[in-house]
Write a structure and sequence with these properties.
With 400 residues, the protein is mainly β. It is 12% helix and 40% strand. Strands 1, 3, 4, 23, 26 and 28 form a 6-stranded antiparallel sheet that branches. It has a 5-stranded antiparallel sheet with strand order 2-22-27-24-25, with no helix packed on it.
Length: 400
């Protein structure tokens, strides 16, 4: 409410007016902090804390945000279901976000909440190619031996959410055959579910490597060759295979033969229900199959489209050490919001147990008052397909 001429202003009106002045003054502090202070004129500030994000180490919590070292700022990723974006959300006790295979497949991770991470494609490509890269990272890795959903990369996975509704109820499967023999040999998979497996999509790499009659094939269903190699590897692990989606196939086969040398065929796919495998043919081969649901306790996909809703929250928070008993505070920030995004400031003076909310430059009076200052910003995104930037913040406490 505005302060009317001749009227007695309320305490909140006066404090919020001071907050507007505080915001203007903080602009100079932000600039000096980034560009450098003059030692002859700079003095310590009373009851003031701020952060210009010159490093990302000052932030204790950042959900759904990425850090730009070049801009010294935090920003929201583009992860809507529109356009070329594709992602999955992983609920787990822990994941190794530094695993090399993530970046090698043009993917990245971001923590979106407590025990929740998103794996998403970063390259400029079609949605189906980005989908292939994400699924490759999860269930194939670089060559089939290092899928992200195995080993020490993840622990305690309790849920997987996909940006695409067609993945709901599907599990990840990896299979391969390799070796030497002079005759035709094959690794046959039989699908247990031939009713609900209506969107079975695969990506493969097959290799006939000696140029002397060697052949490698990926077949699904029986009689339909989806990938073939007769003299050199054919890698379709990062291509658009949406035109090859099969509905309720009964069988699938990795197969090959050679006269000299050896061959290998590898595939990863999504399906409903289990797949049983059996070897047929001559020769000495190594046959591998991993059902990530049955063997690695990785759950089937759930619908993740709700996680890209237009009211997606992003959090940024910091811990501030102070010996003062805090009774009131005003916060301000600089940002660049798109569409109808709205950011709310929260302050806690009891080490994060309770938070009081306020807007930019508005007075906040926490009810549980102590010296355990915690601050956070909650940004409700207006468009999950656009980018919001968060550049700096300042907070002054105990104004009176």
């Amino acid at each position: 409410m505005a302060i009317n001429s001749g009227s007695l202003a309320s305490a909140d009106e006066v404090m919020n007016a001071l907050g507007a002045m505080f915001k203007d003054g903080m602009q100079s502090i932000y600039e000096h902090d980034r560009d450098g202070w003059n030692a002859n004129t700079h003095q310590s500030f009373k009851n003031l804390t701020y952060d210009t994000f010159i490093t990302n180490g000052s932030v204790s919590t950042a959900y759904n945000l990425l850090y730009s070292a070049g801009s010294d700022a935090w920003y929201t990723p583009v992860w809507s279901t529109a356009g070329s974006s594709f992602w999955v959300i992983i609920d787990a006790k822990n994941i190794d976000t530094s695993a090399a295979i993530i970046g090698a497949n043009d993917c990245a991770t971001i923590q979106t909440g407590s025990n929740r991470w998103m794996l998403y494609a970063t390259a400029s490509a079609t949605k189906e190619i980005n989908r292939a890269r994400v699924m490759k990272t999860l269930f194939y890795g670089s060559d089939g031996t290092d899928p992200f959903m195995s080993g020490t990369n993840v622990s305690g996975v309790s849920a997987l959410y996909s940006a695409s509704g067609v993945d709901v109820g599907l599990r990840g499967v990896y299979s391969s055959i390799s070796g030497v023999a002079a005759n035709w040999t094959q690794w046959n998979g039989t699908f247990a579910d031939t009713t609900n497996n209506t969107h079975c999509q695969s990506w493969s790499r097959v290799n006939g490597d000696d140029g002397q009659g060697t052949v490698g094939l990926w077949i699904m269903p029986s009689g339909t060759i989806l990938n073939s190699a007769y003299s050199a590897p054919v890698d379709e692990t990062e291509v658009d295979t949406s035109a090859e989606v099969k509905s309720n196939p009964a069988m699938c086969t990795l197969a090959g033969s050679w006269s000299n040398g050896g061959f290998d065929c590898r595939v990863f796919f999504l399906c409903s229900g289990a797949v049983s495998w059996a070897h047929a043919g001559a020769g000495t081969t190594t046959d591998v199959e991993i059902d990530f649901y049955a063997d690695n306790s990785i759950p089937v996909f759930q619908d993740g489209t709700a996680h890209a809703s237009l009211t997606q929250h992003t959090y940024i928070g910091s811990r501030v050490d102070t010996s003062a008993n805090i009774t009131n505070a005003i916060a301000t920030w600089t940002d660049s919001l798109t569409d109808t995004s709205v950011r709310t400031f929260y302050v806690s003076t009891d080490n994060g147990t309770n938070y009081a909310s306020g807007g930019d430059t508005m007075i906040v009076r926490p009810t549980n008052q102590s010296s355990g200052l915690r601050i956070k910003w909650d940004n409700v995104r207006g468009n999950a397909g656009s980018i919001d930037w968060f550049n700096a913040w300042g907070l002054r406490y105990n104004w009176y």
